[in-house]
Amino acid sequence: MKTRQMNRDWIATARTLSEALPYLQRYDGAIVVIKLGGHAMGSDEAMETFARDVVLMRHVGVNPVIVHGGGPMINEMLERLEIRSDFVGGKRVTDQATMDVVEMVLSGRVNKRIVQAINAQGGKAVGLSGKDAGLITCDPADPALGLVGTPSEIDPSILHTLFRDGTIPVIAPLGAGRVGETFNINGDTAAGAVAAALKADRLLLLTDTDGVRDAGGEVVTELTADQIREMTRDGTIAGGMIPKTETALAAIEGGVRAVVILDGRAPNAVLLELYTEHGAGSLIRPR
Q1: CATH number for region 28-285
Q2: CA Rg value for the chain
Q3: What is the pLDDT of residues 186-200, one digit of tens each?
Q4: 99 vs 35, 72, 81, 149, 234, CA distance in Å?
Q5: Which of 28, 74, 121, 217 has CB 3.0 to 4.6 Å from 55, enough for a Cys bridge?
Q6: Is the confidence at residue 5, as pLDDT, over 60?
Q7: Which residue blocks in the chain are alpha helix, DSSP H?
Q8: pLDDT (tens digit, 9 = 90+) per residue, 85-116?
Q9: Domain boundaries defined on the chain
């Protein structure tokens, strides 16, 4: 039973909901692809909060698609099974033994944890990998890396079928090769490719940093594709941020309206980005 006594927190909550109305209208019917990184998954509490936010999005008319990673969990399982990894140019070589572990962890443990969390919050989620329904077809990224793939064809028809049924797709970044192979795909790359195929309104890359920083170390809240290219050329964007901004540029070139790089560890980061005036992280637009 509700208590009728007012307090400032409740009044602030009501004001926030009222101020969110234009953004609720703006994203009604929109497709939003969310890349959930292995580190951004965090604790059970963080997963519960993320799942609740995704269910809320679906209830107010957004079609969310989750593409997840799972690198830390894969590393943990490889160590437990004493499977040694070789590296070429700093990248893990994925042989068949490693691929078996990758598929087990991503399609099994990680994917089903996210699906279960969303369903526990009253949503209706279903787990997929890129191998299901011909969703992602891959070519080898580099023969020296073994079973690491680059998406070459995306068939999003299964995702549109799920949207019509009010179902939230949760996608493990695996793809099928042209002669029956299974390929491991970088999670950001997979999310960007899916977002481009869907012509998504937003691609949200949840990371362990709060956005793209300028030369002075400050987060830049809005950037164009040309600014990203220039900051990469002059070395302002470096290290692990480069593949994320490359994913953002590829997604935008593929038809995604905008990409946001934001801190997935922050509570309610997705809702702050979509439904508040100030947003969260770095918003990257075509121009």
Answers
A1: 3.40.1160.10
A2: 19
A3: 999 999 999 999 999
A4: 21, 15, 13, 11, 37
A5: 121
A6: no
A7: 8-19, 21-26, 44-59, 71-80, 96-103, 111-120, 157-164, 187-198, 225-233, 241-253, 269-275
A8: 888 876 788 999 999 999 999 999 999 999 99
A9: 28-285
